[in-house]
Each structure stands twice: as structure tokens, then as C-alpha cells.
From TrEMBL:
Protein species of origin: Candidatus Falkowbacteria bacterium CG1_02_37_44
Keyword annotations of the record: Signal
Protein name: Fibronectin type-III domain-containing protein
Lineage: Bacteria, Candidatus Falkowiibacteriota
SUPFAM superfamilies from the UniProt entry: Fibronectin type III, Purple acid phosphatase, N-terminal domain
Fibronectin type-III domain span: 42-135, 522-624
Amino acid sequence: MILNKFFIVTILILAMLPMDVLAVMKSSNYVIYENVLNPFDGPAIANVSSSAGSTSATITWNTNVPADGFVIYSADSGFASYQEQGSSAKDSASHSVTVTGLTAGTTYYFKVKSTRINGGTTTDSTVRSFATVAVTTSTSVQFVYTGGVLVVGKKETTPPIITGVKAENLGAGKINITWLTSEDATSFIEYGLTDNYGQINGNWDLKGAHAITIINLKPDTTYHYRIVSSDDSGNIVKSGDYVIKTTLFNESLIADEVNTEIKEIKDNTDQGDSKETIIAKTSNNILDFIKKIIPPAGTDSQGEDSAISQFDILEKLTSLMPSPKIVGEPTVEAEANTAIISWQTDINANSLVALAPVQSYDAKKDEPYIQIVGNTENYATNHQVRIFGLNQDTLYHFQARSKSKLGPTGKSGDYTFRTKLELFAISNYYSQIIDNETAVFKWVTNAEADSSVTIAPYRGNNLVVNEAKTFKNSSISVIHEITIKEFQAGVYYQVELKSQDLKGNIALETIPAFSTSADDLPPVIFQVQTNSTIFINSNEGIQTIISWKTNDPSTSQVYYIEGVHQAADNWPGKTKLDDNYTRDHVMVITNFNPGIVYSFRVESVDAGGSAAISDVHTFMTPKRKESIFSIVLKILEDTFSWITRLV
């Protein structure tokens, strides 16, 4: 009965508590979340205000519960393209975000956003604005970061201009595209069978004149393409849609081969022979050679003395030559947009694949396939054809074909394969170190997406996740570039590249150990100060505060000794190591004696293990104040030495 009453009282007390108290109950040892299956409304936002300088602005606001804080801002009032900055820590109801990297003399529009612990998000519907202060002289930008998300500001925001776009067919399945830009920029081509493109080719080299060659295209096929270039500041420009149709063959190459054959015939023919005689001799020579290696079963019964027309000779050549035999079944390695088909033949032959998606395959036609790809010029017994530009998750019919230099084409049976479902992914990523504090990260995605980079440092070989910072750009593109100026020399970081496409798919790539400098520089120690106070208690002890600053986060420790000493001396006294990494160091020492001169040095070690130790500093602790009674006793002690036995 007593237990039941206790349970009822407990339920009544819980029912009277506010919802935000029930949602999160904290102690020093645990956090309890109430019913995580129930979504919570976003926090209420109030008291939004802003103040702006020339290149930065501070936005403040309040929420009714602890939440994180982000500022969405843009120079466009419609937020067609915007950026975010803020902190993901959900530990306060008062929020202050300093937006950096702004352009002086510019009006910016912004909204604030907060997400509470249980997931409810509120984006303030009111669009506010602030104007940065115009400056007439060039000033350096001081970046002030508080953790969380930061988007790199750009001083130059004008993208390059694309002109002079030209496309040229270089033969079967090969085109070359050239263009000019108004400033040095990267070179990328998006291309595909529709204006959705789906494939990209190019490089990151900065230049004004661009040329990109695309190979392994389908012959006699119409392709869409557009140009994407970005300048050194990361400003991206995209051209309009262009169309080009690939050719079936390289006409100039065929002409060269024909000319070579004619030259060989002329070299082996008497100058006085007629054109008809040259053709007849050449045909007969070929036929004689074939008869030597293959019995001419079914040839004309009149034999060699018969008058055989040139047409008859060529027809017999075809009938006498066997076609290459395809050994076994072809093998297929299919990806989302490509496939590799391999097979073997009993004699040297070229490598071709006839192909059609299932909806276009017609077995009743003389040619049931819609395209033929491969290599017509190389002859071998092991064959491999790589097919590009396939549609993802699609069933294809195919037939392997091989033809020797003379004779008919050997064909396999009809086979099928299905391409894989394409996954949104990052490719062609790399980093460029500018200096010890700055690095640029670039990557390419196979669909248009945003860009973000998250960095987290290693401290004492441990990854410190709570020091992670995210740099984000909401602009949508297939090429991505973010500059980070937050690195410390010699410190290793985990770097995560992230892009999210318009469908919400996320692609990630992680650089597990990145550093801007292999040789770690030790921290710089400055502003070393001391302050000693005598406090009254039973021991009348001394409290001494030693403080200093470093340019990089590092540990804190003090070495000390009584008297005046040099740096080379032994230092028997030292404080306990404070292994918190900070730029502002404070150590409190309570075991100094009053009225004594002390020498001390401070030491700081950064996350990379590089140590810095200061010069020797000296100070004197304060003396105890003597009471009147103590003064009288001292006088008596000096006068009567026996008085010391009474004290």
C-alpha cells in the first residue's frame, strides 16, 4: 500500500512538470531523453539583433530552450544562393554568431535558425538585413571563429566569362572541345546523351585557353555538353547547352591507309601494266596465297587456265576464308555507366560489340542491335571492349563480333547484362597547401550538389571531435572548392569532404591524417605575469598566480626554485601538468613561502608534441604583516636572548 501511494504521488509530480523539464533531465553523470519517438516543436526565437563592421557582423538572439544557432545569409534578398555560419552546440538559450568574410559596403539579408536537443528546428520567417561598413583602403580580414559551421568568404565574386566555344570530331567516338575564359580558370566538360549530362571530364589547371578531349563516345551519336569553369577565388560559371554528333570513322585515317596500299601495289607492279592488269595480278596473288594454306574445295573446275573475272576472284576470296571462331561465352563486368566485355577467338581478329537496350532490341531484324562499338584496327585472340555512356540500372542485349583481315565476321550468340544503380559519389579530390595555416580542398561529384569540409584535430594521438569545425558553401555545382585558414602548423587533422545533392543523397570522402606542415613549430610564449597574495588562515599561506599566453593551443606547466637562478640550473619544483589545450594559461601555486625570491619558467606543449619553455623570470612573495606583540617580542629577543626559550 505504501509503495502504491509513492508511485501515485510520483506520477502526479511528473505530470505537473513543464514539458521542457520532462524532455531533458540532467545530472552530473547522466542525461535522460524522454520518448525520442515523439517529435518536438522547434524552439521559439526572439530578440534578434545585428551589428556590422566592414567585413564581419555579429547576430544575437534568444530561444526559450537550449539549442544550437546558425545564421543563413546572402547578398540576394531572395536567397537564391546563400551561406551559413554558426555553432552546433545545443547548450545555451542565448546565441551569438559572428559572420566573417563579408564584403565591405554591402547589404546582406539574413535569417536565424535554431535546433533544440530533441530535434525540433525553427527558422525565423522574418528576413532581416544589415550593411557592412564601406572602407576606402585595403584592410586585412581578421577571422574570428567560435566553432561550428563557417563558410569561407571571398573578396572577388565575379565569375569568369566563357567565349569562343568550338567542338571538333577527331574520329569514331572522339571529340575535342576548346574555349576561352576572361581570366585563368579550371577546365571541365559535363556531357551525356541528354541535357541532364551525367558524366564529367576535365582538370583543375588554371588557364585562359582551354582544350578538353573526350574519348570512348558512341559513334554516330548526338551528345549534349556544357562547359564549367571556376577561377582562383572559386567563382563558378556554366555555359549554355551545346550539341555535337560523333562520326562513324576517321576519314583522314582511312585515306592514309588506302594511299599506303596503292603505293605498295605500285612498287610491286611493272610500270607498263594497265590499271586492269594491276587489279588482276593483285587479286590472283592473294588467291594463290590463300590456296597454299587452305584447300580450295569447290573452286572452279576449269582450274587456273580458266579466265576468271576480277569479280569472281574477289567473291572466291570471301568464300574461301573462314570466320574467326569465338571460344566460350563472353564475360561482362558492368558498372552504372560502363561495361567491359571480354572474349577469345581462335585466330587473330578485331574486337567489336553490338549493343542495344532491351526496349530497342529487335531479334526479327537483320541487324537487331542499334550500335556497334570497339576497335577495328587491332588484331588479337584475346579481346576486351570497354563501353561508356550506358544508362544505370538498365538491361542490355549484346553480341561479341570479331573479323580477321580477310574473310567474314565471326559472331557470338545473343547475351544480356544489367548495369548497376549509380550511387552519388565524390571523385577526383585533392588538397593544396597554401601555407602553414591555409589549405584548399577541391573535388568533383557526378551530380550537382553543395560543398562542406569538416576538420577535427588530433591531440596526443586522439581525435578531438568537440573541436571539429565545418566550412560549408550552399552553391550547387559538380566541381567544388573550399579554402580553410584555420590549420595549425604540425597538427594532424581528420578532414571530411561532404556533398549533398538535390535529392538528399550524401557523398563523403575522408582524409584521415592531414597536416599543412611536416615540421611542427613550437608555440610562442608571451605576456608572462605573476601576482601573489597572502591570505589569513591558520598557516598564513601565499597564493601565487602565474599566467601567460601562447599563439597556439597548448598545455600548461610551471618550474620553480627559491633564489635567483639561471636557465641551465636544475629546477626541483614544478606544478602538475594541465593537459587542457588553450592559448590563455593560468596556474595557481599555494606552497610558496612569504618574503622569498623565486625563479620560475613556464612550459607549453602543443598537440603535435612541440614544446616551448620561457626565459627565467623572478619575483618575491609578499611578507607577513607583523603584529605589535610580535614586534615587541623581537626587540626583547634581541635584547634578552633567554626570552626565546619562553616563546
